Amino acid sequence: MTKAISILGSTGSIGRQTLDVADDLGLRVAALSANRDVDRMEAQCRRYRPELAVLMEESAAKALKVRLADTTIRVASGMDGLLEAATLPGADTVVTAVSGMIGLQPTLAAIRERKRISLANKETLVCAGELVMQEAARCGAEIIPVDSEHSAIFQCLMGCRDQKEVRRLILTCSGGPFFGMTREALAGKTKDDALKHPNWKMGPKITVDCATLMNKGLEVIEAMRLYGLPLEQVTAIIHRQSVIHSLVEFVDGAVMAQLGVPDMRIPIGLAMTYPARLHNPAPALDLLACGNLNFAEIDEAAFPCFALAKQAARIGGTACAAMNAANEAAVARYLRDEIGFYDIPAAVERALTLPVMQNPTLDDILAIDAEARRIAAAL
Question: N or C: which terminal CB in the chain sees fewer CB atoms within 10 Å?
Fold first, then answer.
């Protein structure tokens, strides 16, 4: 059971919901970090009184330091600050809720300090999953997934005595705002269209990833890394209602599913309280109000990002890091209205032509990340 937390990415959607859960459970907040939102960070600091507050942008950190001059809260900036927040002795759990590749180094640092990792940053495992899981095993650090799908699988596997009992993992996918549309219809979709997710409230990057279905591709790779299974044993299906969050099919034909309302506070809460289950501020699921539960195949022709993620998983090595970096950079450009919807998979496809290094080191991963971002920037 967690007693004190450091939240990496406290001003984002997952970070704010983590603070809701912390309020409900009475957890102490040891550190908070964000990119550059000075106003929200100041408000969080004054409410939760952390030991340390970190803003990645140096100018924002300087402004925050001035505002918090009447407190004892230390203010830091940049990657050094993020690493300090991840390794702070006063926290037993680190919630990695930052978006993108930036979460990798602080996650590794927290693992080496044997923190419990409440992992909401899927890019960490997509880009360096083997490295991260090996380090966690070496250090004896616990990784509890926060993504709703991976938390669902985590719960379905409770009591599973042997991995050989598992036939496959089945991730569910809402289909995003563009479910059922053709390539022709999708070609002209703007960021404003993509940011209208039907079921979940999330940050802009992950919401666009849900629109392209890249998010589901990243989650397939994350599941492979978390549970040590090959691509052939991890699949995804469309489930528009977002009631069933994922399923596990066992070798005897039994299928276990985890159901709940689409509220991230449920998996966040479990990542704090595991192995116990305690009260959660999220509403309960009303089965009588659910209606029909439907399933469909993913249209990989209309949503090539999903197929490209699986291609990267098959290649292995640095291919996943290249794929992720190109996607991050392309989505950022899409959100700035610089490129179109299908330019995102085009950037990823081009990045997957880069030379691949198997069994990469952290330096290898960071190098390919930089090169793939240059490719996406030049598109």
Answer: N
Half-sphere exposure of 87 (CA within 13 A, CB side): 13
| Residue 351 CB contacts under 8 Å (≥ 6 apart), including other chains | 322, 323, 325, 326, 372, 375, 376
pLDDT one-digit tens code per residue, 364-376: 999 999 999 999 9
Q: Where are the alpha helices (DSSP H) in 161-303?
A: 183-186, 191-194, 204-212, 214-227, 265-273
Query: Is 172 domain-assigned?
Result: yes
The tally of domains found in the chain comes to 2
Query: 311-337 burial by CB neighbour count: b if 16+ within 10 A, else e?
Result: bbbeebbbbbbbbbbbbbbbbbbbbee
Q: Are 226 and 150 in contact (CB under 8 A)?
A: yes
Say what the pTM is. 0.93
pLDDT per position as a tens digit, 109-152: 999 999 999 999 988 999 999 999 999 999 999 999 999 999 99
Q: Which of 263, 296, 315 is the last residue of a domain?
A: 315
CATH number at residue 141: 3.40.50.720
Pairing mode, strands 142-145 and 255-259: unpaired
Before 275, cis peptide (omega within 30)? Answer: yes
Over the stretch 36-51, which tens digit does the pLDDT of each residue have? 999 999 999 999 999 9
User: Locate tokens 């492979």: which residue?
Assistant: 224
